[in-house]
């Protein structure tokens, strides 16, 4: 692991590190905020998965999360959204390839050799941060924005028992039924739709749900509402009687101005679960 | 005036607008955050002047200021740091020309036709925002970062009576004695150092001071401490018996991670003066 930068931030440290990922077979970069409490021993952690076109940097710089994490004594991890580098496949579209890993393990050419983002987050990066930093693996929570909201919700439901709580900002809720999903799931997983179901938050909600609290925020003026399909997830959660807070926030759009407005609520929500 | 974007943000609106500046003789872009209270009538305003290489966007996206401004019912204005555009002079160096206006009115070629940033902020943009938005001109405060801290301090002292309070993050405190200053003041104002004095916060502090509270934060690990010369300003303020809080913050550097950590303190500080 290589340290790229470390900046003092709210009494803790905002670091950026790179490391070799076996799953993605390339070097990966991530951001990690450690609160002051980490000097004294392991702290709980909140994963933040970013959206299309983002890197490890966007949320770290624009979500205004560190102050609230510092107040709660919680670490934040900001993974990248895809493998990157010269040998890594890419596409001209903003929503496929580099910057658009969709948090799945690709099985199709040309993506399969590097696009293993599900395993990268849940295995490689998890193992690394638990080994290298004072983070309490028994107290993990997860959130994300847009494509990262999809990642957070699907990982939380698939990795049962790992996360105390899950939240999302404007998540892609039903990729098997959306142009933000069909194209990418076809490219990464192939045209057999049976392989897609385990990466669709609404289908997972209907099938298994989440054993803990769920918080979802979506802006009523989100320019991508038709692609996100929050109604599908809300419906599935209600039918399941899932513990859930689902909020449509009047006037807000898809931007980080929306995320930063509600990040305090999300971190407080996760803190309650992490410290329960 | 043209609206470039408006995003809901902490119950208010984060807008970006462009307009024609007579002083700079070109189109200029600025950011403006209006809190929810602006719907009901004029609100106090805090100016935020940015540093070298920044645009109107950096602080608006990275300083995490809007949440605290919303809590206090205060508007935020984020001006650009220089004139821009095809007909506008520039330099290959990051610290001269576009992105580096130093908040002075240039008198020298090739800068004089457009680089009139002192008048742009204190006249053109002030007139525009007071005319176009519900902002209370009688309740203005000013802050800034690095080159923008220099701008905030010098404007606050020169425009006596206009600002209730002034603060700065890692300001350039003594440009007449620093490589962050001598080069630019020579280029913009000429080699006669007499013309520089009225743009040096330490000299202005010694000569006239500020009629109100002053708050300065500087990181002890700021990589530009030798260029900022905070000791010169601290000394001048102490000799003058200026009302002042001057803090060296252990471990912090020059980045926006430093700014965002202490922005709450600065906005609270200004709110006390604006609502006094």
Automatic annotation (TrEMBL), chains A, B:
GO terms for biological process: formaldehyde catabolic process. Coiled coil: none annotated. SUPFAM superfamilies: alpha/beta-Hydrolases. The keyword Hydrolase applies. The active site is at residues 146, 222, 254. Its EC number is 3.1.2.12. One of its GO terms (molecular function) is S-formylglutathione hydrolase activity. Belongs to the esterase D family. Serine hydrolase involved in the detoxification of formaldehyde. This is S-formylglutathione hydrolase. It comes from Litoreibacter albidus.
